[in-house]
Amino acid sequence: MPNKKLILLFSMLMTAGGLSAQSLLGVDDAVGIALKNNYDVSVARNNANVAKVNNTLGNAGMLPSISVTGSDNYSLNNVYMNLSSGSSITSSSASSNSLNAGAALNWTLFDGTKMFITKNKLTQVEKLGEIQFRDMVMQTIYNVNVAFYQVVVQKQQLLAIRDVMAYSLERVKILQKGYDAGIAHKNDLLQAKIDLNVNREAEINQLNVIRNSKRALNQVIARDPDTEFDVADTIPLNYQPDPVDLMNKLYVNNTSVLSYQKQVDIAKLSLGEFQTYRLPKLNFVAAYNFFQSDNSASNVLTNRTYGPLVGGSLVIPVYQAGNALRQVKAAKIQLQSSQYNLDNVKLQVNTQLKTALTDFDDQKTLLGIEKDNLTLAKENLRISLERLRLGQTTALEVRQAQESYANSLARFYDFEFNLKVAETTLKQLVAGL
């Protein structure tokens, strides 16, 4: 079929000419760019870093605080004083200066073990930040995969349109020869030309769909929407899920489950913190103070004291207006809610996994059926075109065969894409992307 080969070659040359300056982008390349540039990933990374920065012994209250203070106050006053001895002191512009300096150490030695619970809580919050960062990474990889293979399937649909267009051109050639020879109806020839023009329109529309799909992928990987690139025209489909293995990994690897489990752990520690509010608190204080006062209008012209100080305080809660009990009750309710959330998300991901497995099996079966349909439709179209060339069939039969082939091609590529999405969903659920 020289005409079909000619138009396919022309389309390939046109495509190559348009893509000569475009680099070939693979799905792993797209994922790498996204993980480096995606704004949601960057924010999640910063949130995880904040939780890491906050996880310190000092923030948990386990370390002492040391402060240095100092003040110097100078005043100039008019003084008139009557003393009990009967004498008096009168001075104009009397000066006084008060100098105070010191260093103090405050250390909580015992707070009902709250400091140790708080440190553990900060560690769990840091781990939660890491899990939430992983969750965002998994979601981003999923989004990149779907957007990437959306570009691939749209490119496949373009090739399908051009393939069908080649058959349309061949049909026009056959009917033109038949019409010139007086053995074909003009309306059949006109309809064939109309169908060829419709194919050309579909090609233009599909090129626009591809451009928009590429812009969507560029947005996901956080680069300029008009960055040019090309992708392969095939979708790898060699994944075979093991339902038992996936179910075993679900609650262990799924980032949503891990996140809610960590929130339960944090809620338990928060409850422990509130329970310590009813226990005694012991503080240790050590200081060194210096004080000097100079007064030109006083019997004591200079007063200076300095030296170390060591002491402590013990606070025993006796009555807190029920606040400690109220906070404990509220923390228990919050813990219960956290457990409910965990149970709920486990049910959700379990349902999602089973749905994704069913969807994967269905799409794989549909793809297999459509592959057979595609072989049959292509053979039927070739036979119909040959019969049309020999004058053994009508143009309507060929047109129907061509439509059947075009629809089968479109369904086949859609089923490939759907199967890839189902595969990606299964991998995301067990954090296996």
Structure write-up:
This protein has nine helices and six strands. With 433 residues, it is α+β, with helices and mostly antiparallel strands. It has one domain: Outer membrane efflux proteins (OEP) (Up-down Bundle), CATH 1.20.1600. The strands form two sheets. Strands 2-3-5-6 form a four-stranded antiparallel beta sheet, with no helix packed on it. Strands 1-4 form a two-stranded parallel ribbon. The radius of gyration is 40 Å and the shape is elongated. The chain starts with a helix and ends with a helix.
Report a brief summary of the structure.
The chain is α+β, with helices and mostly antiparallel strands and 433 residues long. The chain has one domain (2-37, 111-279, 319-429): Outer membrane efflux proteins (OEP).
Blueprint of the fold:
Blueprint: H1 2-19, E1 23-24, H2 27-37, H3 39-54, E2 65-82, E3 88-110, H4 114-180, H5 186-220, E4 229-230, H6 243-253, H7 255-275, E5 281-295, E6 302-315, H8 323-389, H9 395-429
Parallel strand pairs: 1-4
Antiparallel strand pairs: 2-3, 3-5, 5-6
